[in-house]
Amino acid sequence: MSEMIGHTPDPGSTTVEEHTPSAVEVPSYRQRQSIGQLLRNDLGFIPVLITLVLIMVFFQFVSKGIFFSSGNLTNLFLQTAQIGLLGVGIILVLLLGEIDLSVAAVSTLCGVILGVLSERVGGGLPPWISIPGALLSGALIGFLNGYFIAVLRIPSFIVTLATSITYSGLLITLLQGQATLEIRNSFIDNIAGSPTSYLTDALGIGLPTVVVLLYVLYRVLNYRRRQTMGLRNPSLPSFVGILILTVVLVEGAVVIFESNNGVPYSTAILFGAILVFWIILTKTSFGRHIYAVGGNKEAARRAGISVVGIQLAVFTLCSFMAAAGGIIEASRSTSASTQVSSNLLLNAIAAAVIGGVSLFGGKGSIWSIVLGFLIIGSLANGLALLNLGADVVAIVEGLVLLVAVTVDALIRRAQARTGR
Fold it and tell me: How many CB atoms lie within 10 A of CB 291?
């Protein structure tokens, strides 16, 4: 989307020769904006990043240095892996301007399906059957949700609320009244639930380094290409600053992980999923169609986009990611439970919205989930370090979500008044 900005002439800085539209000159830099213009524009991740830094610094101070310890930060990522995976699916649905209230129940149900397949069916099926079975179950559930919403045109709020209640009852039926089912399969437990659930040093250091170097190379080549074509680019200091910040954050996280036990498998899976969906949303026609449908469903339909197909695919992917989160949580706890966490749905939606994804559809980045789940996780982790109860955690998370939604609505109104 940002690559298309250069095709629109800037009235304040273009020179148009009469009868020669091709002579439009587009500046290769972004003009400075006033404070008012910045407030009316999409500020991106900067306010959210500042909020995260302030929260972390505060808890580092009040916890007397415990919060930033490598062990605590590793635990923070282990505790939020499920929220992050569910949040990825929620982002896809929010980009359509829809909602999925069943993700928490689906995640727990697929964890139970994993436990039943690996422990009860046929004396215990191998992981290469039970894990895909749980993932496929999630995808099938999502497709069913999407069918009611896209084909039968029932509001997503009603459909997913009803299916959430249904799946909550179904998982109790699957365990036949048993509250928890212990998972004793070592392969499944090693995904996120054992002391050996960490990448080797070579992979833990090598993979993030290679990925961040490829990202920097891509950004540099894209900057040069846009410059050659005369398209607008951010200023060189801003561009270099973003690249440096990215490298510092990634390598800093690697150092923190390696100073403890290494990069957890669950964290690697989470960021691998985010990277894959970033490529899908930004580099494929399917991703562009998701944004188009979320921005204006009728316009997308008239442009020849299969709105029904996009909705079916998105709800399928959302529940698939919920299933992945359920598998991670079942591995971390080495058990499957019939208890659906009362805060899991709130945390998944809050992580997406706080990260900057609009509830109104068509706006947001998949990377928003990183800042979102870190804020949610930091609040829960920091308040736990202060020995505050779950009631305080819920109150604080609810207020933060309310502030995020309010800011999003106010920015939308300001943009509407200026015709953006």
Answer: 18
The list of the chain residues with pLDDT below 70 reads 1-45, 196, 408, 412, 415-420
Q: What value does the CA radius of gyration of the chain take, rounded to a whole number of Å?
A: 23
Residue with tokens 């148009």: 16
Q: Is residue 136 part of a domain?
A: yes
Question: Do residues 111 and 330 make contact, with C-beta atoms less than 8 angstroms apart?
Answer: yes
Within a domain: residue 241? no
Q: What are the C-alpha distances in Å from 162 to residues 99, 171, 177, 316, 356?
A: 13, 15, 22, 17, 28
Closest CA to 411 of 78, 115, 40, 24: 40
What is the total count of domains within the chain? 1
Helix (H) or strand (E) holding 254: helix 236-258
pLDDT value of residue 2: 39
d(CA 160, CA 322): 13
Report yes or no on 237 lying in a domain: no
Q: Using the structure block, give the residue that is written with the tokens 């091709």.
A: 22
Looking at the DSSP assignment, which residues form a beta bridge with residue 140? Answer: none
**DSSP-derived 3-state class of residue 143:** helix
Helix (H, G, I), strand (E, B) or coil at 151: helix
What pLDDT sits at residue 368? 86
CA–CA gap between residue 232 and residue 234 (Å, rounded): 7
- For residue 117, what pLDDT is reported? 94
Q: Is residue 84 part of a domain?
A: yes
**The domain containing residue 342 runs over which residues?**
48-58+65-197+264-417
133 and 114 in contact (C-beta within 8 Å)?
A: yes
pTM recorded for the entire structure:
0.84
Q: What is the DSSP annotation of 182-242?
A: E---HHHHHHHSSTT-B--HHHHHHHHHHHHHHHHHHHHHHHHHHHHHT-----HHHHHHH
Measured between its terminal Cα atoms, the distance across the chain in Å is 14
Of the candidates 88, 164, 99, 42, which has an alpha carbon nearest to the alpha carbon of residue 359?
A: 99
CA angle in degrees (0–180, nearest 5) for 199-205-211: 105
Q: Which residues contact 72 (CB under 8 A, 6 or more apart)?
A: 66, 381, 385
CATH code for position 285: 1.10.3470
The DSSP annotation for 276-325 comes to HHHHHHHHSHHHHHHHHHHH-HHHHHHTT--HHHHHHHHHHHHHHHHHHH
